[in-house]
Structure formats: C-alpha cells, structure tokens
C-alpha cells in the first residue's frame, strides 16, 4: 500500500492511483471519504484516465480551489488522519519528483514545500501545495488552469509565475509586519493608572 501511495503522489502514476482507488471502494469510495473529512464539494466519479476529460459544464470529477485547500489543510493538520499518517503524507509530497517546473522553480532559499501536481485534457493543469519560509508549511496554495491552448511547458510556467507573485506578496506582507511600530505599554504611566 505504501509503495502505491508513493508512486501515485511522487510520480503521478495513474496505475497506482487506480489500484489505490480499488482499495477505497472506487471513485464513490473516495468521494465518501471526502464527505467524511468535511469536503462537501470535491467528487470523483471515474477512474484514471477517463477522469481527466475536463469537459466544460460537466460536474463529474471536479473540485474548487477553496474546497481542495480546506481538504489539504484538514489532511495535513486536522483530525482526519493520525499524526503518523499526516507525517507520511507530507513526506511523500515533499518527495514529489514531477513538480520541479512549477512552484519549486520559484521557491526562495529556505522555503519548505510539499506538493502534488495534476494534469488533464483541454489545457488542464494544477497543483496543491503546503509551503512557507523558515522550513514551515505556513501557507496552502491551490492553482488550477483549464480551457487554455497553452502547451504543458507554458502552463507550468504560468503556474510558476502565479506562485512567484504570491510569494512576493507574502514576503512583502511579512516585512511590513516586522517593520510596523509596536505600541509599548508603560505600567507606570499616569495614563495607565486609571485603566482597568
């Protein structure tokens, strides 16, 4: 089971993913697990590779960035998985071997990342990730592209560019927070004497 999970996560191995689905009761079994974990949006209806069709207007095999961000956070930090399982899932995501051209390509030195990529028809490309500075997974990022004529290489670069923008924004926010003046309370001040 562990080898199948590792192959599905680190290599995006569709055969391994289908074998894992079998142990869960198929696509419906995975959807039931998602509902149990609090995700009322994401659904899986078909097996690999049919689920990658990405037909406009088709609700099968869909999610939203918001739903997937909540689910990833719940899996990594909530009560859905045991602590040992959370650590193992994160290790597999850290060891992702096919995500290099995406967010990892713009990650600043010292930043942590654990991610999982995906791709489908009609220009679909996506990534979910836990990342952050100082070796900590402080942020959850979910980026999905679809309906674009861009090549896979171009889509990878688009996701990397989005990631770079987010990282710059967060870094600027952090610097601003650190530089902001902080009020210091003087307990001996007359102004504080009458306050309760």
What does this structure look like?
It comes from Raoultella planticola (Klebsiella planticola). One of its GO terms (molecular function) is beta-lactamase activity. This is beta-lactamase. α1 crosses α2. The chain has helices spanning 2-10, 14-24, 26-36, 65-77, 83-94, 152-179, 190-193; strands spanning 112-119, 125-132, 139-145. It is α+β, with helices and mostly antiparallel strands and 196 residues long. 45% of the residues lie in helices and 12% in strands. A hairpin with a 6-residue loop joins β2 (125-132) and β3. It has one domain: Beta-lactamase (3-Layer(aba) Sandwich). Strands 1-2-3 form a 3-stranded antiparallel beta sheet, sandwiched between helices. The termini are far apart.
Provide tags for this entry.
196 residues, alpha+beta, Beta-lactamase, three-stranded antiparallel sheet, 7 helices, 45% helix, disordered C terminus, EC 3.5.2.6, beta-lactamase
SSE layout and pairings?
Blueprint: H1 2-10, H2 14-24, H3 26-36, H4 65-77, H5 83-94, E1 112-119, E2 125-132, E3 139-145, H6 152-179, H7 190-193
Antiparallel strand pairs: 1-2, 2-3
Helix pairs in contact: 1-2, 2-3
